[in-house]
Amino acid sequence: MGDETATEIVLDDPEPRWPAFAAVLAVGGLHTALPSYLIFGPRWLFFALVVVLLIPTVVFYHRGHHQLNKIFGFIVISVITAGLILSVIFLIKVLPEHRETPRDLLISAAALWATNVLVFALWYWKLDAGGPHGRDQRPGHPDGAILFPQMTLDDDQSQSWTPNFVDYLFLSFNTSTAFSPTDAPVLGRWVKLLMMVQSIISLTVVALLAGRAVNIL
User: Fold this and answer.
1) Share of the chain above pLDDT 90, in %
2) DSSP symbols for the chain
3) How far apart are CA 102 and CA 106, in angstroms?
4) Quick check: 80 pLDDT over 90?
């Protein structure tokens, strides 16, 4: 799930990809925990689609086909993003119908909130500074669209430091929790737009849906 440039200069210690792959699988698993009226098609369909798309993504990465890996990576993230948005729309739609139980609402809110964190962490990880493959081609992280605190330190460690998936996951968690960046200011416009969308989804799930579930317990 990386990017390809004209000159391939990959560092000896590339960023591990398994946390991102695990996040994609976790999104698929969370989707199966949703009530049936929040899922499009059979319960197994979404998870199966994610696995089918993830397999060639992993294979292309290990074989060094970075352009194909990039394409399938974007497809995988786009599919799980579409699944998240559809489930949120379905949940809002069923609220006036009073079909949901308090337990279903709490489970749905928790699953969708966690999915929101993972999905947008994948987007930040995928797009920032050329993606993981682009970051692997240069020492340090001088030109990212997100200003991590390590980038502001004036020492040798800051010159060689580069973010990995956990850093983007932390950023995404803060955005869904505080509805804004916390320790890492954003510089790029595309990051600001993504954070706005993420905050809207999080606010909808937490403030409206989970709040109503608590009130009717």
Assistant:
1) 32
2) -----SS----SSPPP-HHHHHHHHHHHHHHHTS-GGGSSSSHHHHHHHHHHHHHHHHHHHHTT-HHHHHHHHHHHHHHHHHHHHHHHHHHHHHGGGT---HHHHHHHHHHHHHHHHHHHHHHHHHHGGGHHHHHHTSSS-SS-SB--GGGG--SHHHHH----HHHHHHHHHHHHHHSS--SS-B-SHHHHHHHHHHHHHHHIIIIIIIHHHHHT-
3) 6
4) yes
Sequence-distant (6+) residues with CB within 8 A of 116 are: 84, 176, 198, 201, 202, 205
**Mean pLDDT, residues 139-151:** 75
Greatest distance between any 2 Cα atoms in the chain = 59
- What is the DSSP secondary-structure string of 16-52? P-HHHHHHHHHHHHHHHTS-GGGSSSSHHHHHHHHHH
Has residue 204 got a pLDDT over 70? yes
- Assign residue 13 a region: left if phi > 0, alpha if psi is -120 to 50, beta otherwise? beta
Q: Which is it for the CA torsion 164, 6, 79, 51, positive or negative?
A: negative
pTM, two decimals, is 0.85
Confidence of residue 2 (pLDDT cuts 50, 70, 90): very low
Residue 87's CB is within 10 A of a number of other CB atoms, namely 24
